[in-house]
Design a protein that fits this description.
The protein has 116 residues and is mostly beta strands. Strands 2, 4, 5, 6, 9, 10 and 11 form a 7-stranded mixed beta sheet that branches. The termini are far apart.
Length: 116
């Protein structure tokens, strides 16, 4: 089973930046169909934020375009989410997910809190 560990969350003021990391083990990220970042704010449904496919194709939701960027380091089996110009509405638990052969694997999440 794919194991995922997120890191990099914390408290930051509005306008600041954070970089989240997702380290995969047991399987290379190049052997996984899609690596994704999701987030879930308190009392709200979990939403997809960004995706990178095994072929390197990247997508993100409109609300983070121009501010967030997903990337990967294949040698380290790590996926990143660079978050700039953070807003209070970005506050959420951020989860890394691997989707492969119809199965979903999840990390435990890392908390991002953006203050005014």
């Amino acid at each position: 089973q794919v194991q995922l560990v997120e890191s990099g969350g914390g408290l930051v003021q509005a306008g600041g930046s954070l970089r989240l990391s997702c380290a995969a083990s047991r399987r290379s990220i190049l052997a996984i169909d899609r690596m994704c970042w999701y987030r879930q704010a308190p009392g709200k449904q979990r939403e997809l934020v960004a995706t990178i496919t095994s072929g390197g194709r990247m997508t993100s939701i409109d609300s983070v375009k121009g501010r967030f960027a997903i990337s990967r380091d294949n040698a380290r089996d790590t996926v990143y989410l660079q978050m700039n110009s953070l807003k209070p509405e970005d506050t959420a638990v951020y989860y890394c997910a691997a989707i492969h052969d119809g199965w979903q694997y999840w990390g435990k999440g890392t908390l991002v809190t953006v203050s005014r």
